[in-house]
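Journal club prep — side note

Before the paper discussion, L.F. wants everyone to see what a predicted structure for a comparable chain looks like in token form. Sequence:
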Amino acid sequence: MRLTVGAAFAAVVALAPPACAASDMAGCLRLTGQDAVTRCTQTLQSTGSVPPARRAELRFARGNAYLSLQRYQNAVDDFTAVIELDPTSGGAYVDRGVAYHHLRQYERAILDYDRAIALNSDLFAAYYNRALSYFRLGRFAEAWKDFDDAVKRNPGEAKALYGRGLSKVRLGGSGDVDFAAAKRLDPDIADKFAREGLTP
């Protein structure tokens, strides 16, 4: 259960600027992993004067490629550039928060999720990821609240239900109802959390 690289991207992709017409830019946006990093870098370096909206789009795509490659500092750098170009990009704040989380800079991650929520209070990924950062800091009451807010925004998301259950357990309660609901949606959810060291 990687920290929402796929899920966060799916949740925030609508926040990215629309795809541009130039084939080299469009190619960058379609690719993944190292291919995306290479193409986006080439496009950023070779396209003369790239308008700010297009530059933000390319940096956003490359940042997500860096996340998938676990090159988290590179991802932070690209999402920071997106934010400088477009301070209203909730997706860039969420994904930079994901990168900070993986760098174990949980407080910085939380600040980015706060900013994303201030821009769009319906972002499931911001609540879910902020809950994970709170959980890692041992702030279980805040983690529970954010997992609960994530469940309210997407009741069919097993990881939010399971996280809420874990938080309940850490607060001295029972997470059995949430664990059962999560396992009905994803029978492997407990194993995914356990691989990240998150167990009841």
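L.F.'s comment for the group: Residues 52-68 form the longest helix (17 residues). Keep this in mind when we get to the figures.
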